[in-house]
Amino acid sequence: MTAQTKETVAPDLLYSTAEDDLRAAVRSLLADRADAPAVIARIESDTPYDPQLWKALGADIGAAGLLVPEKLGGQGASHREAAVVLEELGRSVAPAPYLTSAVVATETLLALGTEDGPVGELLGELAAGRKVSVLAVPFPAAVGTVTVTGTLDGTVTAVADAVAADLLLVPTADGLYAVEAGAAGVTVEPLVALDPTRPLATVTLTAATGTRLTDAEAARPAVRRGLLAGAGLLASEQLGLAEWCLTETVRYTRERHQFNRPVGSFQALKHRMAQLWLQVVSARAAARNAADALATGSPDTPLAVAVAQAYCSGVAVRAAEECIQLHGGIGMTWEHPAHLYLKRAKADSIAYGTAGRHREAIAELMELPAP
Fold first, then answer.
1. Which of 133, 230, 271, 288 is the most exposed place for a label (fewest CB within 10 A)?
2. 10 Å Cβ neighbour count for 273?
3. What residues does 172 pair with on adjacent strands?
4. How far apart (Å, rounded) are the C-alpha atoms in residues 77 and 275?
5. CA angle in degrees (0–180, nearest 5) for 176-105-245
6. 3-state secondary structure string, 62-113?
7. 7-50 confidence digits (pLDDT tens)
């Protein structure tokens, strides 16, 4: 008798025609509304978010509803398409709450498995781009301090994009609550963050009220699923960031002359950029694998996400560091956007778990000794 073995389906790491078309539309929009001068001007203002940009991206292009089924008003697409949008947002470091609202918050609601009632209504609002929602957990670590005593009381620090949110999804020991950001008893206080293109804030709830979406038993796996999707697709943002840094560095070193020759022609710099190119190509494979695993519901999704984050975090930081150094003096100026990419890469490297924590997860999933 022969043992039956389960056939393993290889992940699809290539981009479809529809994904390429989506990329072109998003890139064109961001080039028009979120180029480097526009982003720098925004972060220097009191309103880092551009509502018109979000409307164009979320509603007009339909990116906000990519993960939401069509019957709820979404596009009925998958994490692969959402990953393409995040790659382009990483390329421009545009201050848009796409990762936190259209991915993490949306995925958390979808994981509840309830399409009727308030959950379905919220998903329809998010898909249409009419509301922005964030999961009220710290960006660097998924732990909050909200308690339930008939009303919602507590404080959660370092919540990403809370200043742009219309709605807060608040996980508590009693379940998951939807709380209007402007409701009585809700205070959102901006923090000074390393990455000004993704502001953080402290959310304080004092005798606040909200709509209970589900109990704690269903809320816990839903929140975990939302954070897993966030970590997996964050790798695509890191990929887009690294690709921009590499492309701009190669372009600059071809144009910048020293000793009557392009600085990019020096062998030492060629080796550094070639090594970085190899790392970016590997990061693309890891990020696409994570997006495909999320899209197909692969049982290896936690492993794919952990691998992507363990690798892509370091590549994004190194690409941004090389970009600044190889641009020379101009790379150190405020007017050049290189510093925004380094700040975004550094902030992303500790979001939804550090690379070290993801390496530990890999060891646990593969039952290997901890690194």
1. 271
2. 16
3. 175
4. 35
5. 150
6. CHHHCCCCHHHCCCCCCHHHHHHHHHHHHHHCCCCCHHHHHHHHHHHHHHCC
7. 567 889 999 999 999 999 999 999 999 999 999 999 998 888 99
